[in-house]
């Protein structure tokens, strides 16, 4: 807890969890896609679904997907901006198992054709967590530059990734490694102290055993 | 912040012979290991928040109402009554009430505000600080110092109890904002550390047990009007503290009591929209209408 957790943030109201947090979720999802979004199917869960309209959660999510931040005064009119920029969207309700009351599933298609499915929650204040990316547990707050590397579970891949990072002077703040079964699909979730340059992302993507690299820069409050 | 109690802050004030706001500022910089950011930069950041509060106050639109249609125009109504000499509250308190309503309404209408500590309670601190600056001619420097006083109090409450309605009821949001505002006002009015912490304690005491019973789950009814309560209680608490009145229960114990009460509040009174005002016949009627 620091002074600026209690004072601030500057945000478009009314709710730091249902509005500002929702904008952050949309914004982080867009950053994860690394391209503009063409289509968004948005499934609201729990309190997001029940009180979302009054809190502007729907407008907030679209605003974030368009690249707006929580204090952007265009948020209340995000639907018009979406129309202008060609973002097609649809809202539905959903019941997500074991999810936080302020959760949402986003099925996104980018302008270059990339697809991504994200489950995220707004956990209070304007803090958010990206719970799942494409079905894989992630638990990312995007407070740090974060790498998600999908690879085959074999010896050598983890050390290859960490030595590449070290070669580029990138310090690892936290690291989680998971797999669905031995020798199956594994995922590394690495929070870094420094931003990861694009050329390193390319190197990582092309490395042996790596199936997919997703990256998001730190998203400020 | 490393402080877990208001008493710790006061001890540091005494030991290092520094005012409350400075102890909060310096500890925060140490806590965040802010070596690259200078004190000026931290101060500048806090100033931006204060200026955003000012901007939000100026940007109030009388004709606006929230998407639900339930909220809007009351801040202006209050201001008009004040200028027409209809109120019992004097010029200071009357203006504080008007500003608190305006900010609460702006929040509900999706305008830009500063969460302090939350969106729902965003009217309390600006109401007292902006009015104080306007009517007592304080320097901007002092106002930012007052922001640090408020923030220091808020952090201890956040660490020792809670600052969200869902966790601890409205006493944790409006109550906390009121305690923060009371401490800030006591500071501006010449109070020392002890005066500041007792002002905060007396605010919390007056709002102990306040439930979070938002109608239709929106940050509108009764949130907007509760910002007035929070601001007015802050004025009374600061005045009592400056008059030399002290809380018999030590401030940190009051915070702990708030936590205990919050934990004892039934779920229906903790931002679930299921109890209190939310469960009144009109409250349910409003909810059903909005859901359809």
CATH class of the largest domain in chain A: Alpha Beta
Q: Biggest β-sheet of chain B: count, sense, barrel?
A: none
CATH fold call of the largest domain in chain A: 60s Ribosomal Protein L30, Chain: A
Note the total helix count of chain A: 7
Strand and helix order of chain B: HHHHHEHHHHHHHH
Cα distance spanning the termini of chain A: 14 Å
C-alpha Rg of chain B (nearest Å): 18 Å
Stretches with pLDDT under 50, minimum 5 residues of chain A: none
Largest sheet of chain A: 6 strands, mixed
Specify the overall morphology of chain A: globular
What is the number of helical segments of chain B per DSSP (H or I, 4+ residues)?
A: 13
CATH C-level category of chain B = Mainly Alpha
Mean pLDDT of chain B: 94
CATH topology of chain B: 2-methylcitrate dehydratase PrpD
> Helix- and strand-based class of chain B?
mainly alpha
CATH architecture of the largest domain in chain A: 2-Layer Sandwich
Count of extended strands of chain B: 1
Hey, roughly how much beta strand do the residues of chain B contain? under 5%
Strand order, main sheet of chain A: write it out.
Answer: 3-2-4-5-6-7
Describe this entry's structure for a reader.
The complex is a heterodimer of chains A (221) and B (292). Chain A is of the alpha+beta class. Chain A folds into 2 domains: 138 residues, 2-Layer Sandwich (60s Ribosomal Protein L30, Chain: A), CATH 3.30.1330.90; 71 residues, Alpha-Beta Plaits (2-Layer Sandwich). In chain A, the strands form 2 sheets. In chain A, strands 3-2-4-5-6-7 form a 6-stranded mixed sheet. Chain A has a 4-stranded antiparallel sheet with strand order 9-10-8-11. In chain A, β5 and β6 form a beta hairpin. The model of chain A has no long low-confidence stretch (mean pLDDT 91). Chain B has 13 helices and 1 strand. Chain B has 292 residues and is an all-alpha fold. Chain B has one domain: 2-methylcitrate dehydratase PrpD. The model of chain B has no long low-confidence stretch (mean pLDDT 94). Classes of the chains: A alpha+beta (221), B mainly alpha (292). β1 of chain A pairs antiparallel with β1 of chain B.
């Amino acid at each position: 807890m620091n002074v600026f957790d209690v004072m601030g943030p500057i945000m478009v109201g009314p709710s730091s969890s249902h509005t500002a947090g929702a904008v952050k979720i949309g914004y982080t999802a867009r950053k994860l896609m690394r391209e503009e979004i063409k289509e968004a199917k948005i499934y609201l869960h729990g309190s997001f679904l029940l009180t979302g309209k009054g809190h502007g959660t729907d407008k907030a999510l679209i605003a974030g997907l368009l690249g707006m931040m929580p204090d952007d005064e265009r948020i209340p009119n995000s639907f018009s901006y979406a129309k202008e920029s060609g973002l097609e969207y649809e809202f539905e309700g959903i019941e997500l198992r074991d999810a936080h009351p302020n959760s949402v599933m986003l099925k996104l298609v980018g302008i270059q054709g990339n697809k991504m499915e994200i489950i995220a929650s707004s956990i209070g204040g304007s803090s958010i967590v990206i719970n799942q990316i494409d079905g894989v547990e992630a638990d990312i707050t995007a407070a740090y530059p974060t790498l998600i590397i999908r690879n085959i579970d074999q010896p050598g891949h983890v050390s290859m990734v960490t030595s590449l990072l070290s070669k580029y002077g990138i310090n690892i703040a936290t690291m989680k490694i998971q797999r669905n079964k031995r020798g199956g699909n594994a995922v590394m979730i690495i929070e870094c102290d420094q931003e990861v340059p694009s050329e390193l992302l390319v190197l990582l993507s092309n490395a042996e055993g790596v199936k997919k690299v997703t990256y998001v820069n730190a998203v400020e409050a | 912040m490393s402080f877990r109690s208001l008493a710790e802050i006061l001890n540091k004030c005494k030991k290092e012979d520094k005012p409350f706001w400075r102890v909060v500022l310096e500890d925060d910089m140490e806590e965040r290991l802010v070596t690259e950011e200078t004190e000026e930069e931290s101060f500048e950041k806090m100033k931006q928040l204060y200026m955003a509060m000012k901007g939000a106050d100026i940007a109030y639109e009388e004709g606006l109402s929230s998407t639900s249609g339930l909220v809007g125009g009351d801040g202006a109504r209050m201001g008009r009554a004040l200028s027409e000499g209809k109120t019992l509250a004097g010029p200071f308190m009357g203006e504080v009430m008007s500003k608190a309503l305006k900010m609460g309404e702006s929040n509900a209408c999706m305008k830009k505000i500063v969460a302090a500590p939350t969106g729902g309670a965003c009217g309390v601190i600006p109401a007292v600080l902006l009015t104080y600056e306007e009517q007592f001619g304080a320097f901007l420097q002092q106002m930012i110092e007052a922001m640090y006083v408020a923030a220091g109090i808020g952090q201890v409450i956040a660490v020792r109890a809670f600052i969200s309605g869902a966790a601890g009821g409205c006493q944790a949001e409006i109550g906390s904002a009121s305690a923060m505002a009371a401490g800030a006002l006591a500071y501006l009015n010449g109070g020392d550390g002890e005066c500041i912490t007792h002002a905060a304690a007396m605010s919390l005491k007056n709002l102990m047990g306040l439930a979070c019973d938002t109608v239709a789950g929106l940050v509108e009814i009764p949130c907007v009007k509760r910002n007035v309560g929070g601001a007015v209680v802050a004025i009374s608490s600061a005045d009592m503290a400056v008059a030399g009145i002290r809380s018999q229960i030590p401030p940190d114990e009051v915070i702990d009591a708030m936590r205990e009460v919050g934990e004892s509040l039934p779920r229906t009174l903790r931002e679930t929209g299921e109890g209190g005002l939310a469960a009144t016949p009109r409250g349910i009627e409003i909810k059903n209408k909005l859901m359809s």
